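Rotation project, supervised by the postdoc (A.L.). Task for the rotation student: set up a whole-complex structure prediction and record inputs and outputs verbatim in this book. Inputs entered:
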Amino acid sequence: MLSLAFYGKGGIGKSTTCTNVAVALARMGHTVLHIGCDPKADSVRAHFHGEAIVPLLRLLHTNPNLPLEEAIRTSEEGIVCVETGGPTPGLGCAGRGIGMVLEYLARTQAVQKLGIDCVLYDVLGDVVCGGFSMPMRKGFARHVAIVSSGEAMALYAMENIAKAISNFKSRGYASLAGIIAIERGDATIRPLAQQALEAAAAKLETPILATIPQSPLVFAAEGQHSPLLTCYPESPEAAVYRDLAKTLFERFGN
Amino acid sequence: MKETSKQTTGKYPENIMDAYADCATYLPSYASDTSGVCSALYELGGLTVVHDASGCNSTYSTFDEPRWFKQESAIVISGLTEMDAIMGDDQKLIDNCIEAAHIYSPNFLALCSSPMPFVIGTDLPAIGAELEERLGIPVLVIPTNGIHSYIAGCGLAWEALLARFCQRLPKSPKPSINILGASPLDIENNTLSHLCAWIRSIGFQLGACLALHTSLEDISSLPKAHANLVLSSSALPAARFLTHLCDQPSVLGLPIGSFAPILKERLWEAVTTKQSFGLTHTGSEAPLVIAGEAIFCASLATALPLPSVLYSPLECPPTLLLGKDSGGVEDESKIQSMMATASVLMGDPFYQVLAPEKRLLAIPHRAFSGRVFAKDMWNILDPQAFQTRILNPLREEIAC
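Outputs recorded:
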């Protein structure tokens, strides 16, 4: 059983990474549950050719006794998808909303009933309140992968998330699996950024699990509203995602 | 603190009491700010909406409001659900307020908040503005959060009420006094009747009462009076408002025992000179500990033949309780340490639990013990009752 949450700075590529890892795991024969934990509700779109699925919070708002089969949507690749969604920006409490969705999935025994063996949580960038740490709490993700580039703000977010994980160690929260490096910048900047990221990872005593290359194919796949593994399955970039999925399951899938 | 805890409770080992230092382990909390708002506005023909989860109304109606089963008032809870809070469903609140307003046809609508909307930052002022526009009646937005006591709630409600319904008016031809701070949470009917009679007996006309046995029309006439008698810290914001609005002075205190003549002089001077009179008590290591609302405690202390030290966990002005007195901080260990050197405690019977071996002269306080001691409530302004229940037992203690 792999139970992993992706955290990292907003816009760094968590959803792209999570989506492609989900596809790779599904193609390896796993039954994957991909949970988008973001009020924007845009994590699982690529599994449905860009179509937005109805966020679970909205469904629960209308029907608190919603049956599990109406709460999920399964992609062509067989990936079970849930978007938490959230209130209109500026209103309500998105953090608690994530908690409510995760509690719903636990209460309805979604993982057991659907035969899931890989749960991926794609959590929004800013862990601004308790609700956003919900996926890393006991009973949910067992490991956290931080998605980061070598840019200052991404590193800052990475360190903060790592600090949160470390602070909550005594509570039985998820442990840090490692860093997923995202290449950014031109040829001059990339080696420097990679160096900075490696230094930060070393300081946290955590491995870099994979480096996602800066590639036009990633952007091209996004333009087609589909995972890179679907659009360019034979590309070297697809191989990187497949290797990452394999690494994650082998190291943390017990 | 450790030693005191051991002496007074003897129930838990020291290390457990250490863990509970600065916590309320025995005493209940005073009525909340939302109860204060409902109580303050009860008789004025408004519709009071507490934006909170359903069920929170029963604490108010069961424990804090003696008028609930005798006198009608439009007080409702919005019935906020977890999902409404998560989704920020303000529209539901707006629609329900409009529906309730159509049912009750209130003079005004008062909207107050509780912990959940407070924490998620619900924009009640904006909701209030929208409601006012759609309903065409005044909407008072009372910024409670459910965390403070009834003192804050009454204070905010009365201040908002006065700001909306009071304006400068010509003074009454005869010297008159308003009563500010009369809510069943602090004062019983008999005591209030006695107070009204006392005001008349010292040569004044009775002005309006904020806010028992009153109406919205009476409230609008508050600026006509020459001075205010402030019974409770809950009315201090209203008193300040009236001073700013029409230069109306205020005198703090309750005419208990020998304090009554002093208060009489201050009221006449206030009316003559427009000077306000506060209240200050400086506590010392004393044989008497008085616990409760600060203005009440200080008035009572002034009427006693022995020095005292006062404990008020409720919001009160920083200038009221000085020296060894404790004001504005809820801390059982503080009153326990006061009790360690004292022999008599005065206050609500619930305080007895902190010092079971000490003598307690009971003065039940509805804001603290609800209806538990309702049948034992007595009129402290009645000289005979004051003599029997307070002064005589004190004499016995002095004799000992």
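Student's summary: The domain at 2-249 of chain A is CATH 3.40.50.300 (Rossmann fold).
Supervisor addendum: The interface with chain B takes residues 57-58, 60-61, 64, 86-88, 90-94, 96-97, 100 of chain A (CB under 8 Å).
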